[in-house]
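Mods, move this if it's the wrong board.
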Amino acid sequence: VGGPMRNIQEFCDADITGVTINEYQVRVGNMYCEHKGIADKCRIVQGDFQKLPEKFEKESFDHAYAIEATCHSPDRIQTFSGVHHCLKKGGIFCGYEWVVLPERGFDFKNEEHLRIKEGIEVGNGLPTLATTAEVLKALEDSGFDVLDAYDANHAVHTEHEIPWYHTLSGSFTLNGFRMTKFGRCCTHVLITTLEFLFIAPKGSVQVSSLLNATALDLVEGGKNELFTPSLFFVARKK
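Not the wrong board. Structure tokens:
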């Protein structure tokens, strides 16, 4: 919890405030900051990123970032407008977004594409996945100038790249076996047995099945370049 925040602080000595709605993440993340001796430079506060103006005063921060977080927002304009409120004039906002890729083949009229999209959404607790154009428009409508935006995995299938979904697709190695089809079956049998014996809590099988299904959808979306978890953007507050 808060790993990217601590790494950024280490590399550039910034003073960083993280926001999460989860009280457990606040407690654990701040504990890690204390253990690392940077509690005076890094802290996590509990808050709703849909209601940032209620948490922070106007122009409280120099810059902001979000890593695969605002894809969970039901209203990006509201979220981005809250970031805009918190930034000083000229402040930079950068981040990674999960998006579908019509420019590379995703078709909203294709039932199989929609099945993959909806599987990713359900398994990862997401509202409707946006397109690149929709994310950039939301930034502009929130008062930002978009300076740059691109899919950091645009070369995912070149010979020198390891696909972002490689781990999820599984392999017959010590680390990759559990994600193979046979490995998933073994895991399913084990969790079913543990739940039957009341060792694992009720609902564990359902959750495991959901996560396995969405992993397969992520792999399909990645292989067919219908989806990316790595739309990188850089925007400046006007």
